[in-house]
What we know:
mainly alpha; MetI-like fold; 13 helices; about 75% helix; globular
Amino acid sequence: MERRWLFYPYQLWMLMFTVVPLALIFFFAFADTSTYTFTLDNIRRAAEPVYLRVLWRSVWLAAVSTLVCFLIGYPMAMILVTSRVKYRNMMVVLTIIPMWMNFLLRTYAWMTLLEKNGLFNAVVKLLGAGPVQFLYTDGAVLLGMVYNFLPFMILPIYSVLMKMDKSLVEAAQDLGADAFTTFRRVTFPLSLPGVYAGMLMVFMPAVTTFVISRLLGGGQFMLIGNVIEQQFLAIGNWGFGSALSVLMMVLIMISMMFLSRYNKTGGGMYL
């Protein structure tokens, strides 16, 4: 009881930087600021087809980037776990190093690589082909998402695999299971908590991003994050921007509830 005061700074922090901002977002989303009355006009506008199409595009790109991160990140995590300690530590550092650099700088670096006179087109010219439009495409946006968020997929899976009881794998092998069967029936099911965590950590920032789509997409590919940014910073319609933010929060909460329920019920644990 005497140490209860230790929680007060944390509670104050949560109140100022989580509860109050969320309360303001819901206030602007459901209030007419001119009359300070309750209204659903902003929510109805956010549910219009044009914005739902933008939302679907954002969800689709985020889902594809999450899948690509999983297909790349899981084997990479397996390589890290099975490597020798001295190589493993170096590879973990190499995985984390890009996160030490500013997010904008990493994205600008990809702009210089993908532009018409960039490295990718230089390689294409060496192969005898003409310049290819890499920049300002869906592929460029997807590449930026995968590059920036891939460590968030690798590290949770790596952490779970490192803590896994290796005797279970040895028991499966002693019972005659080959490498693929051992992976399918033992390793992968036990690593699912890390997979779920990685998917959430990739999907949530990917579906709300606006910097990657603005720089690598050139403003030609509007995502829901770009629309929200415009409403707050350019147009100044905080009510509609808040309504779109509430829509995004609901989507993210549904995703988290689905994955949490799937994990608790043991879905996919026995393949």
